[in-house]
Amino acid sequence: MTDPVIRTLSASDAHLFDALPDPLGAREGHRRTRFRPDWKRVALRDGEVVARGAWWGGPDDSEPVNINWFDVAEGEEEAGAELLRSAPWQVELEINLPGGWRDEPGLRAGAEARFAAARAAGYELLVERFLYRWTPERGLPERPGRLRFSAEPDDAVFFDALRRIHSATLDAHALRAVEEGGLDRAAQEELDFFHWCPSPREWWRTAYTPEGDLAGIHIPAHNPSGPTIGFIGVVPEQRGRGYAYDLLAECTHLLVEQGAEFVGGATDQANFPMAANFAKAGFPVIRERVNFHPAGRMA
């Protein structure tokens, strides 16, 4: 067997990316995603495409943020690994899968082949997540009316709230950021991401109890795939009262008031309370996501 040839694509040969079958339905999930041809790479063996990866970032980014489309042909895990390890960018890898993929032998085999390639390339599992999508026929979630929501122009207020929220969190990305750089790092990463999103800063909201105490924050956002529940967080001393649902309902309403025809969302599968809130608010699971990160990433 000949060694695979790794090739970075261009506008003239971008069609090669479509040479592999799409058994996991990635193309449907990326209908709204805009990829740059030169951030797509393929592995060829004897002239046939046996693995592919699409790195993705915002329109003004000089380097990709992540890899969110990665496929390997049957038996070509090593070619997929070489595609990843030889890339000039070592960024997080997202593998998006149909809901319930573990229950379908074909889907499970395809997913596990991609996982094996990622691990062989030096990637480690970070977290598995549920992806949600609210649509109008689900009906808007009821607003409990227990909290007072306010626009807050001062980033320092959100920074402080995020530090408090991440001091006791179930979110794997936040936990990794805390481990690498402390609570300040975790809070700043969140702020940087939402400033990066192409949605107005004026949408961000703080939430207060009737007594005037901060209960939490919610951040409605648009990412490049559309309107989404950007962030829901309750400060530790206010937990146990169900306020995350109040924040989620309000966030959904605000996005719809701004013209959203659907609303996306996501949470870690181990975050059982937030998953329950999404279900209560009428957000069905539409896909699942498995996140890998490069091993030994520098802090």
TrEMBL record:
Residues 163-299 form the N-acetyltransferase domain. This is N-acetyltransferase. InterPro entries: Acyl_CoA_acyltransferase, GNAT_dom. It comes from the Bacteria. GO terms for molecular function: acyltransferase activity, transferring groups other than amino-acyl groups.
